[in-house]
Protein backbone atom coordinates (compact mmCIF):
# COMPACT_ATOMS: atom_id res chain seq x y z
CA UNK A 1 0.00 0.00 0.00
CA UNK A 2 1.25 3.50 -0.82
CA UNK A 3 1.83 5.89 2.05
CA UNK A 4 -0.46 8.91 2.36
CA UNK A 5 2.54 11.24 2.38
CA UNK A 6 6.30 11.25 2.03
CA UNK A 7 8.39 13.12 4.57
CA UNK A 8 10.44 16.09 3.38
CA UNK A 9 13.53 14.22 4.55
CA UNK A 10 12.81 11.47 2.03
CA UNK A 11 12.68 14.10 -0.74
CA UNK A 12 15.95 15.61 0.54
CA UNK A 13 17.68 12.22 0.59
CA UNK A 14 16.32 11.49 -2.92
CA UNK A 15 17.72 14.84 -4.11
CA UNK A 16 21.18 14.02 -2.77
CA UNK A 17 21.16 10.50 -4.24
CA UNK A 18 20.03 11.75 -7.66
CA UNK A 19 22.65 14.50 -7.58
CA UNK A 20 25.36 11.93 -6.84
CA UNK A 21 24.08 9.79 -9.74
CA UNK A 22 24.93 12.71 -12.04
CA UNK A 23 28.64 12.26 -11.23
CA UNK A 24 29.23 8.84 -12.87
CA UNK A 25 26.58 9.40 -15.54
CA UNK A 26 27.09 12.99 -16.68
CA UNK A 27 24.07 13.54 -18.87
CA UNK A 28 23.37 17.03 -17.53
CA UNK A 29 19.78 16.22 -16.77
CA UNK A 30 19.78 14.32 -13.47
CA UNK A 31 20.96 17.44 -11.68
CA UNK A 32 17.72 19.20 -12.65
CA UNK A 33 15.65 16.31 -11.27
CA UNK A 34 17.72 16.54 -8.08
CA UNK A 35 16.96 20.26 -7.89
CA UNK A 36 13.26 19.54 -8.29
CA UNK A 37 13.41 16.96 -5.49
CA UNK A 38 15.24 19.50 -3.33
CA UNK A 39 12.56 22.12 -4.02
CA UNK A 40 9.90 19.56 -3.14
CA UNK A 41 11.72 18.85 0.13
CA UNK A 42 11.88 22.58 0.95
CA UNK A 43 8.20 23.00 0.17
CA UNK A 44 7.43 19.91 2.25
CA UNK A 45 9.11 21.43 5.29
CA UNK A 46 6.88 24.50 4.95
CA UNK A 47 3.59 22.89 3.90
CA UNK A 48 2.23 19.50 4.99
CA UNK A 49 1.02 18.04 1.67
CA UNK A 50 -0.57 14.81 0.64
CA UNK A 51 1.37 12.42 -1.59
CA UNK A 52 -0.55 13.48 -4.70
CA UNK A 53 0.15 17.16 -3.98
CA UNK A 54 3.84 16.39 -3.43
CA UNK A 55 4.08 14.44 -6.70
CA UNK A 56 2.26 17.21 -8.57
CA UNK A 57 4.65 19.80 -7.14
CA UNK A 58 7.60 17.56 -8.03
CA UNK A 59 6.46 17.25 -11.66
CA UNK A 60 5.92 21.01 -11.94
CA UNK A 61 9.31 21.62 -10.30
CA UNK A 62 10.94 19.19 -12.77
CA UNK A 63 9.44 21.10 -15.70
CA UNK A 64 10.61 24.39 -14.20
CA UNK A 65 14.14 23.18 -13.54
CA UNK A 66 14.38 21.63 -17.02
CA UNK A 67 13.42 24.97 -18.55
CA UNK A 68 15.93 26.76 -16.33
CA UNK A 69 18.56 24.18 -17.31
CA UNK A 70 17.87 24.77 -20.99
CA UNK A 71 18.67 28.46 -20.61
CA UNK A 72 21.73 27.76 -18.44
CA UNK A 73 23.23 25.31 -20.95
CA UNK A 74 22.30 27.53 -23.91
CA UNK A 75 24.21 30.39 -22.29
CA UNK A 76 27.18 28.12 -21.57
CA UNK A 77 27.13 26.84 -25.16
CA UNK A 78 27.24 30.37 -26.55
CA UNK A 79 30.17 31.20 -24.28
CA UNK A 80 31.92 28.02 -25.37
CA UNK A 81 31.75 29.02 -29.04
CA UNK A 82 33.67 32.20 -28.31
CA UNK A 83 36.62 30.29 -26.86
CA UNK A 84 39.15 28.13 -28.65
CA UNK A 85 37.53 25.05 -30.21
CA UNK A 86 38.56 21.86 -28.47
CA UNK A 87 40.82 19.63 -30.59
CA UNK A 88 40.76 22.14 -33.47
CA UNK A 89 43.94 24.10 -32.87
CA UNK A 90 44.52 24.13 -36.61
CA UNK A 91 41.82 26.80 -36.87
CA UNK A 92 44.21 29.17 -35.08
CA UNK A 93 46.68 28.78 -37.96
CA UNK A 94 44.36 30.51 -40.42
CA UNK A 95 45.66 34.02 -41.02
CA UNK A 96 49.14 33.24 -39.74
CA UNK A 97 52.19 34.40 -41.70
CA UNK A 98 54.71 31.85 -42.93
CA UNK A 99 57.62 31.63 -45.35
CA UNK A 100 58.11 29.21 -48.24
CA UNK A 101 61.18 27.12 -47.41
CA UNK A 102 61.45 25.62 -50.88
CA UNK A 103 60.17 26.46 -54.32
CA UNK A 104 56.59 25.34 -54.92
CA UNK A 105 56.15 23.03 -57.90
CA UNK A 106 52.69 22.26 -59.25
CA UNK A 107 51.25 24.29 -56.36
CA UNK A 108 52.86 22.14 -53.65
CA UNK A 109 55.77 22.81 -51.34
CA UNK A 110 56.76 23.43 -47.73
CA UNK A 111 56.47 26.46 -45.49
CA UNK A 112 57.99 27.37 -42.15
CA UNK A 113 55.42 28.48 -39.61
CA UNK A 114 56.97 29.31 -36.26
CA UNK A 115 59.45 26.52 -35.56
CA UNK A 116 57.70 23.90 -37.69
CA UNK A 117 57.80 22.89 -41.34
CA UNK A 118 54.43 22.22 -42.95
CA UNK A 119 53.33 20.76 -46.24
CA UNK A 120 51.55 23.47 -48.17
CA UNK A 121 49.48 24.03 -51.28
CA UNK A 122 49.13 27.24 -53.21
CA UNK A 123 47.22 28.22 -56.35
CA UNK A 124 50.48 29.44 -57.88
CA UNK A 125 54.09 28.33 -57.86
CA UNK A 126 56.23 30.25 -55.37
CA UNK A 127 59.95 30.78 -54.99
CA UNK A 128 61.77 29.81 -51.81
CA UNK A 129 61.65 32.63 -49.24
CA UNK A 130 58.30 34.00 -50.45
CA UNK A 131 56.15 35.30 -47.59
CA UNK A 132 52.75 33.60 -47.47
CA UNK A 133 49.63 33.69 -45.34
CA UNK A 134 47.63 30.62 -44.29
CA UNK A 135 44.11 30.66 -45.80
CA UNK A 136 42.88 27.23 -44.64
CA UNK A 137 44.00 23.91 -43.21
CA UNK A 138 43.25 20.61 -44.94
CA UNK A 139 44.36 17.75 -42.70
CA UNK A 140 48.08 18.34 -42.14
CA UNK A 141 48.48 20.54 -45.21
CA UNK A 142 48.27 24.31 -45.09
CA UNK A 143 46.49 26.10 -47.92
CA UNK A 144 48.49 29.30 -48.43
CA UNK A 145 48.50 32.39 -50.62
CA UNK A 146 51.20 34.91 -51.41
CA UNK A 147 51.16 37.59 -48.73
CA UNK A 148 50.25 41.00 -50.09
CA UNK A 149 52.96 43.62 -49.55
CA UNK A 150 52.10 46.24 -46.96
CA UNK A 151 51.99 49.75 -48.40
Structure description:
The protein is of the alpha+beta class and 151 residues long. The protein folds into 2 domains: 75 residues, no CATH class; 58 residues, OB fold (Dihydrolipoamide Acetyltransferase, E2P). The chain is 42% helix and 21% strand. It contains 3 helices and 5 strands. It has a 5-stranded mixed β-barrel with strand order 1-2-3-5-4. Helix 2 packs across helix 3. The longest helix is centred in the middle third of the chain and has 32 residues. It is rod-shaped and about 85 Å long. The N and C termini lie far apart (87 Å). The mean pLDDT is 83.
Put the structure in a nutshell.
This protein has 151 residues and is α+β, with helices and mostly antiparallel strands. It contains 3 helices and 5 strands.
